[in-house]
Amino acid sequence: MDVGRAGAGGRAEMRVVILGFDGFSPDLAFHWAGQGRLPHLDSMMARGAWGPLRSVIHPITPAAWTSMVTGTNPGRHGIFDFGVRCDGRYEPRLATSRDCREPDMFGLLSRAGRRVGAFNVPLTYPPSGVNGFMVTGMHTPHLEAGCYPRALAGEIRQIAPDYSIDVMSYWYEQREAFVSDVYRMLEARRKAALHLWRRYRPDLFMAVFVAADRIQHALWAESFPSSGEIENDVIGGEVFRVYKALDDILGEFQDELEDGDVLFLVSDHGFGPLYKDVYLNTFLQQTGLLVTHPVKRSGETRWYRYPKRTLPHIPAIGSPGKTIRSIDWSRTKAYSHGMFGNVYINTAGREPAGIVQPGSEFQAALGQLVDELTDFRDPQDGQPVVDHILLGRELYRGPAVTQAPDLVLIMRNYAYMTRGGREFDGDRLVSAPKVNHSGNHRLDGCLVVAGQGVAPSGRLPCASIMDICPTVLGLLGANAPAHLDGVPLTDVFPGRRLTPPQREGVFREALPSQGQANPTGREFHADERATVESRLRGLGYLD
Asked: Cα 363 vs. chain centroid, distance in angstroms?
């Protein structure tokens, strides 16, 4: 198998390594580094530049990582959630790399003649044909299907025989088994990533590790028992342990790099407590904006049933009786679907059975929605549920903005959230989380940069997650598309000329997706799609 060996064709002026620590939260990571508890991160911060990295809204895995590697907002690349909207249907289907409307930095650098390696980056399945190699991450049915070249799977199996695509807490009855498998996954990922870097040393190597995200979702409340809030004098239990394991991996990569290399540590979002699931469709039903068909009940049939588990925060699911399929679209003006908080107006000509006419009727429905959501309060504490109500057409920009939600809601700083596929729960508006999660995403992730040409400038102003792509392209001498939303981090590299994309003043059509160059010739076999969807359905990502 030839994916380009170290030294082949000479080396670039520099190499760039990006370590992605999914969910690595700045308020924890930088605090523990300052205390000397994360010594390798502390060393990297002392030698370079660091600060928060603002994610996209919502800071959800597919949208955030896609924005990082394309340098564009969801209104351009078209990935807003785990699912994508389909013509003629209200239910979304599972998003894949082929739904991305923008080329990513792996494809752009490949076209510029640079060798690249992408390892476990979310939403890169199916893999693209790149000048180098790609091992896809979340949503990959199995390792062999996610490798380009495909023979790379055998090489990884030799290095890490128990390599797994993912570990989710809801699969487990015992806390200890879940935690053990997270670290087993992390160790296999560590071995494979180091092997790929040592053997091939591409000009760009990006490896993502998801262990911190999985531990924080499940064990946040256990690690921070004071109502889930962070206390500076609390080490952080299992959360600290996984941060320490990632810090050790950071140290190993620091030892591998040469003087001419640049190392980025990035995360797609931060973390904080999760208190409530919100049922926006039930709320919309109570306001009269949504109408459902009568529910047919039969015996003990349940929509979805969890076995009894011993992880924290697992209330019984019960029988909600209604899903998005229960909605009477002929009488419904607005509905919710997706993660964190999205509302769509049932618009004529856009939705399959839309009844709200564009123009003044749409604006009237929008105004009513804003008024109702502003008054939406948690019945248990009487406080507002919604912090911010954002217009999708103003929040996002680009040709995919037509697929965006009409209203994007931030609820209690993401301590409250919706769950696509869990739109109703009887007559309740809020409840304890319906899965064994006590932690949820926050807007700011981490950015740390060290290496050749990096000024040891200390703390940076908050950068955008979309700035990573144009910065890497500039470092490796590739032209950035003119319409990128991110800008190069020139303050980090004061001695190097990083030309920002030239703004055209108007939005041009998106470039063809790099994902369309699909070497496998397919996305999923039927059994593979079922495997991936079952992983997400248990978390309430899909109906």
From this structure: 31
| Domain spanning 16-82+94-273+441-537, CATH class | alpha beta
Beta bridge partners of 440: 272
Element (H, E) at 118: strand 116-121
Residue 284 gets the label, from left (phi > 0), alpha (psi -120 to 50) or beta, of alpha
The angle, 0 to 180 degrees and rounded to 10, between the axes of the packed helices 175-200 and 211-223 is 150
User: Is residue 417 within 8 Å of 274, Cβ to Cβ?
Assistant: yes
Q: For residue range 51-81, what is the model confidence (pLDDT) as tens digits? A: 999 999 999 999 999 999 999 999 999 999 9
d(CA 539, CA 422): 9
Domain ranges of the chain: 16-82+94-273+441-537, 276-298+309-436
Q: Residue 431: beta bridge partners?
A: 277
Q: What distances in angstroms separate CA 3 from CA 123, 206, 338, 402, 421, one per listed residue? A: 22, 15, 38, 39, 41
pLDDT in tens, 3-25: 765 544 445 578 999 999 999 99
CA distance 151 to 509: 36
Per the structure block, which two tokens stand in for 361? 């009727």
Query: In this predicted model, what pLDDT tens digit does every residue of 278-304 receive, in sequence order?
Result: 999 999 999 999 999 986 654 433 332
